[in-house]
From TrEMBL:
GO molecular function: DNA binding; zinc ion binding
Pfam families: ROS_MUCR (PF05443)
Organism name: Citrifermentans bremense
Family of the protein in this entry: Belongs to the ros/MucR family.
Ranges for region Disordered: 120-150
Name the record gives this protein: Transcriptional regulator, MucR family
GO biological process terms held by the UniProt record: regulation of DNA-templated transcription
Recorded superkingdom: Bacteria
InterPro entries: ROS/MUCR_sf, ROS_MUCR
Sequence ranges of Basic and acidic residues compositional bias: 139-150
Low complexity bias (residue ranges): 125-134
Length: 150
């Protein structure tokens, strides 16, 4: 192998590795989608991308945007993932939920919802004030009127 051929092959390997890191399929590979099921992709400790097969994510939304230029809704639609299925690992969701409960965020949310509903009800039951009739605009003063008084 000549040095030019070697440099060319190293360049191909480098390009292939960059594409793999970005989540793009290899050139010449016939399979563009991984053969993962939804259950296999959403594991307890990690989430695996069903487009490129890359795994180890706690949440998938950022990877979808950066590597594939895709929004979570499009991803769910493409793979028939239920709308209520979070794109996060179960352990991660549980840890975030526990942290929110420890901080009392659920109580704060309940209070805020109660205040909001009370405001909505108050607006519904408030008597409707009749609209005041619009005043007719005053006619502009004439310049001649000033001259007569002076």
């Amino acid at each position: 192998m000549t040095s030019d051929q070697l440099i060319f092959e190293i360049g191909k390997v480098h390009t292939a590795l960059k594409n793999l890191e970005a989540g793009e399929p290899l050139e010449g590979s016939e399979e563009t989608k991984t053969s993962l099921t939804v259950k296999e992709a959403f594991r307890k400790g990690e989430v695996v991308c069903m487009l490129c097969g890359k795994g180890g994510f706690k949440t998938l939304a950022r990877h979808l945007n950066t590597a594939h230029g895709m929004k979570p809704g499009e991803y769910k639609k493409q793979f028939s993932i239920p709308g209520k299925q979070p794109l996060a690992a179960k352990n991660y969701s549980d840890a975030r939920r526990k942290m929110a409960l420890d901080r009392g965020l659920a109580d704060n949310l309940a209070k805020a919802r109660g205040v909001r509903m009370a405001n909505i009800e108050a607006k519904k039951t408030a008597p409707v004030k009749p609209a005041k009739p619009a005043k007719a605009p005053k006619p502009p003063k004439e310049a001649g009127a000033k001259a007569k008084t002076a």
